[in-house]
Amino acid sequence: MQKEITALEDNGTWSMVRLPAGKSRWVPNGCIKLNTTQMGVSRDIKLVLTFLAVAAAKNWKLHQMDVHNAFLHGDLSEEVYMKLPPGFSKNHAGLICKFHKSLYGLIQAPRCWFSKLIAVLQQYGFLQSYSDYSLFTLYKGSIRLHVLIYVDDLIISRNDSAVVSSFK
Hints:
The protein is of the alpha+beta class. It has one domain. Helix content is about 25%, strand content about 25%. It contains four helices and eight strands, in the order αβαβββαββββα. The strands form two sheets. The protein has a five-stranded antiparallel sheet with strand order 2-8-7-6-5, with helices on both faces. Strands 1-4-3 form a three-stranded antiparallel sheet, covered by helices on one side. Strand 5 and strand 6 form a beta hairpin. The protein starts with a helix and ends with a helix.
């Protein structure tokens, strides 16, 4: 567990601070999930099947890409604090974690990750579909690249293999 904590600290996920005045709040466990929308998840199997059918009809190869530790890449836009778990460290007595980056288990994590991914894809030149927010397309001259996102997995179809290599 110490390796994981060290990796998170090296990533700048949080800093140790004193709790600012007025920042205490009672927060429920968070395990109850009501009718929520999941970011980056295509819920329409028809889109997935169409994506695969178009790739097959055009004889385009498919590629799969997994973004490791995806939720740790998202930047938080609001202040989030966490009380240290018991036994975390005696050196941090009286301090709490102030998060700078997303972390698995935070309610904001999927949104932060997906927002970061959208920004990167758009910077690369992709356009987000109006009909399904998890589908992105890139048109550059004769190059065609399509990306379908499912949480931290990407399915990529293309007509140019060199583009996929540079994209990955």
